[in-house]
Amino acid sequence: MNTTTTTTTTAAAKKSSTLYMVELAMMIAIILLMSFTPLGYLRTPGLSITLLTIPVAVGAIILGPKGGAVCGLAFGATSFYMAVTGSSAFAAALFNINPFGTFIVCIVARVLEGWLTGLIFAALYKSPAKKFSYYVASLACPLLNTFFFMGFLCLFFYKGIVSSLGVSNPVVFVAAFVGVQGLIEAGFCFVVGSIVSRALSVALKRA
């Protein structure tokens, strides 16, 4: 009897683990697809608005903090690839100034973004504010992305911004330049991310 129960439990655990890996792989595939097609960015003269925070937010909500961190890593890896290859003029300029700083800005910031979004959702989902958890997490993801991006940008590229652009206050410059697109990204992710993550949770019977 105990052997049968143990076998059943083990099989269920393996099935759950396999399903988790499949879902994670699908989220990574979506991030890669969006990264290298027009689906991932809205490019305007002077601004490049990313929509990649949406799959990161959805991944963090559906797959938890670890899944969110992996999705953030995938997002960051594509950004760093663009910096190295010159696919993104802005990221390439950063890489030429400070490769290590670019790595932190592109990858570490995005891993933290996904991980913290997962933690925020998990905490809210277990609280009386459960019904708001999808919306708050979907909004937190792009805001965290902007916060860490701006913070690391100022930390590692302060002198570079001063010397190359001749601005007197790099912090204000970065806040004005990145902040505008951050607000737009937050709007997109809040609406789309919350709807998609909620729908997936219902479909996967996790709501």
What does this structure look like?
It contains six helices and two strands, in the order αββααααα. 82% of the residues lie in helices and 4% in strands. Helix 1 (2-35) crosses helix 2, helix 2 crosses helix 6 and helix 5 runs antiparallel to helix 6. A two-stranded antiparallel ribbon has the order 1-2.
User: Which parts are unreliable, with pLDDT below 50 for 5 consecutive residues or more?
Assistant: none
What's the rounded overall pLDDT mean? 86
String of helices and strands: HEEHHHHH
**Which strand-content bin applies to the residues?**
under 5%
The class by helix and strand makeup works out as mainly alpha
Largest sheet: 2 strands, antiparallel
The 3D shape can be described as globular
Helix content: over 70%
- Total number of strands: 2
Count of helical regions = 6
Radius of gyration in whole Å, from Cα? Answer: 19 Å
Summarize, please.
By secondary structure, this protein is mainly alpha-helical.
Provide the fold topology.
Layout: H1 2-35, E1 41-44, E2 47-50, H2 53-85, H3 89-97, H4 99-125, H5 133-165, H6 170-203
Antiparallel strand pairs: 1-2
Helix pairs in contact: 1-2, 2-3, 2-4, 2-5, 2-6, 3-4, 4-5, 5-6
